[in-house]
Design goal:
Helix content is 76%, strand content 4%. A three-stranded antiparallel sheet has the order 1-2-3. The radius of gyration is 25 Å and the shape is elongated. It is mostly helical. A hairpin with a 3-residue loop joins β2 and β3. It has two domains: 132 residues, no CATH class; 140 residues, no CATH class. α5 packs antiparallel against α6, α6 packs antiparallel against α7 and α9 packs antiparallel against α10. It is built from eleven helices and three strands.
Length: 301
């Protein structure tokens, strides 16, 4: 009797899997056509993103799609356990919202809003084809895709200027603390009252900030911590990026004094940009270690 029940249950599981495979095979052409139409529709935005990723400030954005694919591959076992149940109503509603957002961006010439509609369309396709279980599982990966988009022009200007001032003032303070004769004239640092070092907009640290936020978001997703600790880790990437940029400017100023302007500029744009990333990662993991020391685990009942 037990063997018959087990056999019947096993047979039902196999038939359910076969039905799911048949549904997937039936949906495959429609999904392929939907993805093809979406890719063709957004070909101009993708080309624009490729151009934006060539700029210094947003060059780290090209890593976001690759990281998202890696995170999807990492979640493959959990995704196999999810029930594939297409949600046509809310998926189509999200697609309509994405196209309305895109239309608003085209009419009022907001390129950034047009870019955001790309991520909304991806979310709508996932919800419409795979359903709520898969959508909830990959929601954070979809939100992570927003980091590949450049900031709106107004937000970029609002952030770049203060970052430039903070970098200049912070480097002057740190150089004075180590006994270097330095003065500040706007965004120009005068070393020994004779050697000018201009902190241009490219030196504001916005590129480092975008890269550090991406690294912090990836680290927060990978580590097994509470949501509060992950949020703290993500938010701390902003001061970490500012501190690393100030340190980079100080080392550049020392090279201005001891070597030459050519050596200092080469260091700032080539070596220092690569060296700051491992330092930032070490700071993030040091922050995780500090949170472990400050967090008291509750005793088991």
């Amino acid at each position: 009797m037990v063997d018959r029940r087990f056999h019947r249950k096993h047979t039902l599981q196999i038939s359910g899997k076969k039905q799911m495979q048949v549904k997937l095979l039936m949906l495959a052409p429609a999904v392929f056509m939907l993805l093809a139409v979406t890719a063709w529709s957004y070909r101009g935005i993708v080309a624009s993103l490729l151009r934006e990723w060539q700029r210094d400030d947003y060059s780290a954005g090209q890593l976001v799609p690759l990281i998202a694919l890696f995170l999807l591959w990492r979640e493959r076992k959990n995704l196999r356990k999810c029930l594939l149940k297409p949600c046509w109503f809310w998926g189509i509603a999200l697609l309509i919202l994405a196209q309305a957002t895109r239309f608003f961006g085209l009419v009022f010439m907001f390129q950034s809003i047009d870019n955001y509609s790309l991520v909304l369309s991806i979310a709508g396709i996932v919800l419409m084809v795979a359903g709520w279980q898969v959508f909830r599982r990959v929601l954070w990966i979809i939100l992570f895709l927003f980091l590949m988009l450049p900031l709106p022009g107004r937000v970029h200007n609002m952030i770049s200027g203060p970052l430039q001032n903070i970098a200049t003032t912070g480097s002057v303070f740190l150089l004075e603390a180590f006994g270097v004769r330095v003065s500040q004239e706007g965004n120009v640092v005068m070393l020994n009252e004779s050697i000018p070092m201009a902190v241009a907009e490219a030196c504001s640290g916005l590129r480092m900030l975008t890269a550090f936020v991406i690294v912090a978001a990836f680290t927060a997703y990978m580590v097994k911590r509470s949501r509060r600790q992950k949020a703290v880790l993500l938010l701390s990437s902003i001061p970490v990026a500012v501190i690393c940029n100030i340190f980079r400017l100080c080392v550049t100023a020392v090279l201005f004094l001891l070597a030459s302007a050519e050596v200092a500029q080469k260091f700032f744009h080539d070596f220092a940009g690569l060296a700051m990333m491992p330092i930032a990662v070490l700071l993030l993991f040091g922050e995780l270690w500090l949170m472990d020391k400050l967090t008291v685990s509750e005793p088991e009942q």
